[in-house]
C-alpha cells in the first residue's frame, strides 16, 4: 500500500514537472520564417535585389510625399489621395523589411509569438488601409469624370481628412481581433511558416486547436474589406466607362480614360496577387510552395515598389524633375 502511494506521488510529480516544462516551452515558443527553400547558400546574393526593392520603395514614396507637401499647387484631392497611398506603402514596406532582410542578410529565421502576432496585425491593417485608399482614388476619378461641376464642392479638404481617418479606423478596428484570436491557440504542430513574414492564414494553420472561428472571421474580413472595395472600384469604373463612351469627342474620351490608367494599374498590382495568395492558402493544398512564396513576395513588395512609378501624373513628374533639376544646377556651397 505504501509502495503504491509512493508510486502515485512520484507519477504525479513527474506529470507536474513535464507539464511545467511543456508550459515553459510553449511560452518561449518561436516560429521559423522561410526564405527560398534550397537556396540557403546564396541568401546573401538574393538579399541584393530585396535591398534594392526596399530602397526604391522607401525613396520613391518619400519623394512623392515631399513634393506634394512642399508644393501648394499639388494640394488637390487627387494628390492628397496619392500621398495617403504613399504613406501606406511606406508603412507596409517597413512592416515586412526587418524579417525579410533578417533572413537573407543574417540568416535569422526565428520570430517570437508576440513579434509574429504584432507583425501580422500591422501587415493586414496596412493592406486594409491601402485597399480603402485605392477605393477613395476610384471615387475621386468617378466624381472628376461623371460629375466635374460638383468636384470641388464634394471633395473638400475637411471631407478628405475625415475619409482618411475613417480608412485608418476601419483598418485598426477590423484587424485588431486577429492577434488576440491567435493568442488563444496552442501551437504544438510544426512551427515553420511559409513566408518570410507573418500573416493570419499562414499562422493559424500551425495551431492544434479548433481554428474555425478564426478561419470564418478571416474570410469575413477579406470579403468585407478587399472583396467589397474591389467590387465598388469595379462598379465605379463601369460608371466611368459609361460616361466616357457618351462623350462625342474622341480626344476628350481618350484624355478622360488616360487619367484612370495609372490607378487601374495600381489596383491590378494590389488585388491580383493578394486574391491569388488568399485562394492558395485556403483551398490550394496541392499548390507548389514556390508559387506560394513568390505570390507572397509579389503581394507585399511589388505594390510599394511600383506605385510611385505607375501613379506619377505628368504634373507631378514635372514638379519632381524641376525640384531635382534646380538642386543639381546649384553650385556647391550655395
TrEMBL record:
CDD domains: 7tmA_OR51-like. The keyword Protease does not apply. It is a multi-pass membrane protein. It comes from the Eukaryota. Keywords: Cell membrane, G-protein coupled receptor, Membrane, Olfaction, Receptor, Sensory transduction, Transducer, Transmembrane, Transmembrane helix. GO terms for biological process: cellular response to lipid. The chain crosses the membrane at residues 42-68, 80-106, 121-143, 163-182, 230-248, 260-284, 290-311. Residues 60-311 form the G-protein coupled receptors family 1 profile domain. One of its GO terms (molecular function) is G protein-coupled receptor activity. GO terms for cellular component: plasma membrane. Pfam families: 7tm_4 (PF13853). Its main location: membrane. InterPro entries: GPCR_Rhodpsn (IPR000276), GPCR_Rhodpsn_7TM (IPR017452), Olfact_rcpt (IPR000725), OR51/52/56-like (IPR050402). Belongs to the G-protein coupled receptor 1 family. This is Olfactory receptor. It comes from Chrysemys picta bellii. The lineage of its organism: Eukaryota, Metazoa, Chordata, Craniata, Vertebrata.
